[in-house]
Amino acid sequence: MPIIEGFTMPSSLEVDQATATPNYARFIAEPWEKGFGHTLGNALRRVLLSSMDGAAISSIRIEGVAHEFTHIPDVVEDVTEIVLNMKKVKLQCAGEFPRTLELYAEKAGKVTASDIREDGVTTVLNPDLVICTLDRDRPLRMEIEIDFGRGYRPAEENKREDHPIGVIPVDCLFSPVTRVRYDVQACRVGQRTDYDRLDVEVWTDGRIDPQEAVARSAALLQEHLAVFCTSKPEETPTIEITNEEDQELLERLSTSVNGLELSVRAVNCLNTAQIRTIGQLVQKNEPEMLKYRNFGKKSLQEIKEKLLELDLALGMTLKDELVAALDQRLNDDEDKD
């Protein structure tokens, strides 16, 4: 029997295509039982604003500058103003963090975010942003450290003991969601007019599509609420693999990724991605793996070599019965935990 039997709920989510842009979208869902509009709207808004992740500049080091109160010859702006401008740079990155980029300019005039030298996996989304202004031709070089996180991190937390003299920590605004607004109105179902209609508006800075942001936030809420679901699912019959070759493969795929004896960085990446077994791992392809936080080409090569030792590889297509058996074993292990 469904847990939500007797409740009126939306069958789908409507997106206002007439107003949708890469940075904005309006979502409409109706009807909800009275009160659920505010309950869900407020929860979704909080998660969207606080829990979306992204890349941001965490510190800068300007050549010839010892601290943020140093005067830079031939530069109109002071260091404090330059730091404030660097906080506004929007970056889209993949691979491992933290990483370092360089900004270099030598011509008189405006120095913009387009002067940041991209490394092939980093894109500056607002290249016209003015960083500072040079009074005359002279070289200006900055080292920029990029980190990955969620929400907001103050500059104080970006200070490290191993930072050399001249490194200036920067406030990180990781969240790509800039604004969220929701509104609840009454709507009609049959003769009743006390149902809720939920409108949610989402603005982003271009690093994430609003529809993806809403989907990820909803999934995150769902994961956190799962702990409160105490009802046990109906038992499913055990899936048996009769083919001896498939049975042997199933045993290998059911093994924990810890058995691969990977580096600490690679293990942490897999744990973050919630990849627990070799079977889950081999079903991922290389582009999918490189999207995970702090997972770079070195970790990818390490995993490929370890899988090769087991006659396995990334991007494998497994038989349906093998996938089902793997899922069942994983669920059984989670129930035991």
CATH architecture of the largest domain: Beta Complex
CATH topology descriptor of the largest domain: RNA Polymerase Alpha Subunit, Chain A, domain 2
- Going across the major beta sheet, what is the strand order? 7-5-10-3-12
Number of strands: 15
Write the element-wise H/E pattern from the N-terminal end onward. Answer: EEHEHEEEEEEEEEEEEHHHHHHH
Number of domains in the coordinates? Answer: 3
Report strand %.
Answer: 25-35%
Global mean pLDDT: 88
Structure description:
There is one protein chain. It contains nine helices and 15 strands. With about 325 residues, it is α+β, with helices and mostly antiparallel strands. It has three domains: about 15-50 and about 175-225, Gyrase A, domain 2; about 55-175, DNA-directed RNA polymerase, insert domain (RNA Polymerase Alpha Subunit, Chain A, domain 2), CATH 2.170.120.12; about 245-335, DNA polymerase, domain 1. It has a five-stranded antiparallel β-sheet, with no helix packed on it. Strands 1-2-15-14 form a four-stranded antiparallel β-sheet. Helix 1 (about 35-50) packs across helix 3.
